[in-house]
Write a structure and sequence with these properties.
With about 475 residues, the chain is an alpha+beta fold. The chain has helices at about 55-60, 125-130, 130-135, 135-160, 200-210, 245-265, 280-285, 300-305, 310-320, 335-350, 375-380, 400-415, 460-465; strands at about 20-30, 35-40, 45-50, 70-80, 95-105, 165, 180-185, 190-195, 215-220, 235-240, 275, 300, 320-330, 355-360, 365, 390-395, 430, 435-440, 445. The chain folds into 4 domains: about 15-105, OB fold (Dihydrolipoamide Acetyltransferase, E2P) (Beta Barrel); about 140-265, 2-Layer Sandwich (BirA Bifunctional Protein, domain 2); about 280-415, Gyrase A, domain 2 (2-Layer Sandwich), CATH 3.30.1360.30; about 430-470, no CATH class.
Amino acid sequence: MKVRTHRCGELTKAAVGQTVVLNGWVQRRRDHGMVMFIDLRDRTGITQVVFNAERNATVHQGAHALRSECVVSVTGQVMARPEESKNPHLPTGEVEVFVDAVEILNESKTPPFVIEDDAEVTESIRLKYRYLDLRRPKMQRLLSLRHDIMKAVRGFLNAERFLEVETPILTKSTPEGARDYLVPSRVNPGQFYALPQSPQLFKQVLMVSGVDRYYQIARCFRDEDLRNDRQPEFTQIDAELSFADREQVMTLMEQMIVTVFREAGGVHLPTPFPRMTYAEALGRYGSDKPDLRFEMPLYDVTAFAATSEFKVFKEAATKGGIVKALIVKGGAATPRSRIDALGEMAKSFGAKGLAWLKITAEGQLESVIAKFLDAKAFAAALPEAKPGDLVLFGADKAAIVHDVLGRIRLQLGEELKLIDTKAWKPLWVIEFPLLDYSPEEKRYIFMHNPFAAPMDEDVAFLESEPLKVRAKAY
């Protein structure tokens, strides 16, 4: 095998006339008789290589053996493409390589799916043939982006005089937010190591050891169900610094995020990032990590519900629960079957159901619950709801209402294409609760970790009303 001189995505008109060596995978082959075209691919892109029978009959004949995903090495001369065959969609679209020699480095069976971004293939097949899936341009771009992000993170934190320190993977089980993965010890039968859910304890030890600025691109393990925002194994940027207050840490991390977006993604984020309290985020969007790329807020109608004749609303409002509304603008045309499906979704998230009503063009309330509601009182309680809208209600304990409506909000945002997928909306969420109550353990537990300090003005509640205590967490 000859040493390659260029990668497949690098050749431009500046290389015309040069003899080059390219190594890569056969993306596709087009046989035009005396001339055969092959798209040769590596992780940088694609170059069109040409097997011309008049130029080299032996090499042209050998090209008939090439199949999709064969690994080959070609030697040839870079030529400018004729004007009519230039491809403006490829960085290499102005040139092609006329092949003088070809070597098959590895033959390939017919792959189970086409190695292209738009190939229709199930996730299970992609995972079964992960080594093939990773060849797709999109996956190569994501791997490259991940590399660029890590490079930018390290560059920024190194410049800020942080030390990168690796912490142990085999450690002792400590209470965190999920179950631990346990690893049996061979030399200590009956005893186990735990894989770390985070380097939290170790970085605190580093702080008292005098390592005043630490970071690590850390592998973390949590034995929990796989969801959109949960993975059993993941990587996080972990950092800690001494002799700093919350504002200093937030400013530094904000600068790091801005740097990463600029250097790795070419995105310029405006600063400072907006801030929102945990209570506001949960109350307005039903989530402690709200997607601000679309609005659709939750509206509190508990006071109205307490005076209504609808039993579900009245009981929730008068027995310590809440009633909140989600307005789907122009949603009055939504078919009943879709509304019922949203109700089933709400039940799957822990709700007893999902009440709803439509506001007709004439401003009338249309729903099975409409007869229990005073139209004028409703209009006064929720003036944001207009004719033509659909209103969805959650009535239960606050935690259930926020979680269910927050999830439905995201679902509708995607379904109705309300989300501006090209926008970036970074946000600081601050003042998380310090404690939560565990019915299983019958005790108060830390919501996140035991190292978060309480807000100064909430210290007085630690003994009397611990759930009121907010943390200096963000």
